Amino acid sequence: MTEIYFARQPIYNRDFQVEGYELFYRQTAGAESAEFLDAEIATSQIVLNTVTEVGLEQVVGPHKAFINIARDFVVGGYLQMFASPQLVYEVTGSIAVDEPLLQTLRQLREQNYRFVLDDYTDNEAYQALLEIADCVKIDMLTTSEQEVRRLVPSLRQRGVRLMAERIETQEIQDLCESLKFDFYQGYHFSQPKMLKFSGVVPANQLVVLQLVAKLHQPEIDLNAIEALIRQDVSLSYKLLRYINSAYFNLPRRIDSIHRAIVLLGTRNVRIWATLISLANLDQHRSDLITIALERAKMCELLAEATGIKQKESGYTVGLLSVLDAITQAPMELVLKTLPLEEEINEALLHHQGLLGRILACALAYERCDWGSLDMLDLEPAQINDAYMTALAEAYRISCELLKS
Q1: What pLDDT, in 10s, does the model give residues 272-284?
Q2: What is the pTM of this model?
Q3: 155-176 pLDDT, tens per residue?
Q4: Three-state secondary structure along the chain?
Q5: d(CA 277, CA 192)
């Protein structure tokens, strides 16, 4: 079972009520600081895990989430997928400021994205960023009191709110209160608290990388994109979870990979897949990949033979039937994190409904359990043909995926 770690430190308003939490990436439970070489990888993992894996409601509740962003993450257009009034993005002092960055930030600002300038110093680069900032953070440990007293009135004239960070003594807090800072953060109030979330499905990195490569070809074939996504159970899981998240607020849940791609559009699928690749998530066992592909194709063929209108639901049920084995968690727990139609949930959990019968048929045939085989009112030859076709396709795809 994959585990996700965050360190979370509260940010308080003037009344010392929690305004939000800054989220810090952690690789392990014992890490006291972020251990990464690429800020973009850490950023993508924070955003992906928070928004599409764990859910903001579990991490920050109704409060805001403050997340540091790297330059390539902004200029590359990745933030376009994560628009939420709960998300506030912190632009760090080390970011390289130029016109492409400023132009992108201006466009995002017009779309109601909110930005905080972290570790503010009164230099030319930061002054250029003030036009897009909602708030400015001043480091109370590294900035002298004289400089703080000079900066506060100057920044207020620019119409930005002020946050004091790294408040570690009562004396510093008193100074910040006298200057009427809007927000407060620091060890004096609370140290970062470690959070752990379990049961996240790992991605097949090889499939993701192939998908990213295909998405960036000059001529993009949406059918090929769909086929590649459908080959990987965890990639399909992540796409369906993303499209069904609260951020899209769709009237109906989507259980079709094709519909998810159409609704997202090529550009968003490209961004989504690239982010997953950057997150560098673990690969899972190749034998489970083959089993998932076998069941998915067999269930799809059986669904088509029985006359179900949406045969892709059969593929989805077969593909997701190995989620418990991949995550090493009960299927019921896994499905709670993946909003699906009740028909699919019942099929996976209890083998109920026509989709459930189809999955039960595929499982019985896979195990040679002839005594419990549900024939689905089909001829034995139809079921055998579906199984043999699924077996051949699963092994063919598996071999292609494992090529170096």
Answers
A1: 776 666 554 344 4
A2: 0.72
A3: 999 999 999 999 999 999 999 9
A4: CEEEEEEEEEEEECCCCEEEEEEEEECCCCCCCCCCCCHHHHHHHHHHHHHHHHCHHHHCCCCEEEEEECHHHHHCCHHHHCCCCCEEEEECCCCCCCHHHHHHHHHHHHCCCEEEECCCCCCHHHHHHHHHCCEEEEECCCCCHHHHHHHHHHHHHCCCEEEEECCCCHHHHHHHHHCCCCEECCCCCCCCEEEEEEEECCCCHHHHHHHHHHHCCCCCCHHHHHHHHHCCHHHHHHHHHHHCCCCCCCCCCCCCHHHHHHHHCHHHHHHHHHHHHHHCCCCCCHHHHHHHHHHHHHHHHHHHHHCCCCHHHHHHHHHHCCHHHHHCCCHHHHHHCCCCCHHHHHHHHHCCHHHHHHHHHHHHHHCCCHHHCCCCCCCHHHHHHHHHHHHHHHHHHHHHHCCC
A5: 28
CA R_g for the chain: 25
Identify the CATH number of the domain defined by range 2-198. Answer: 3.20.20.450
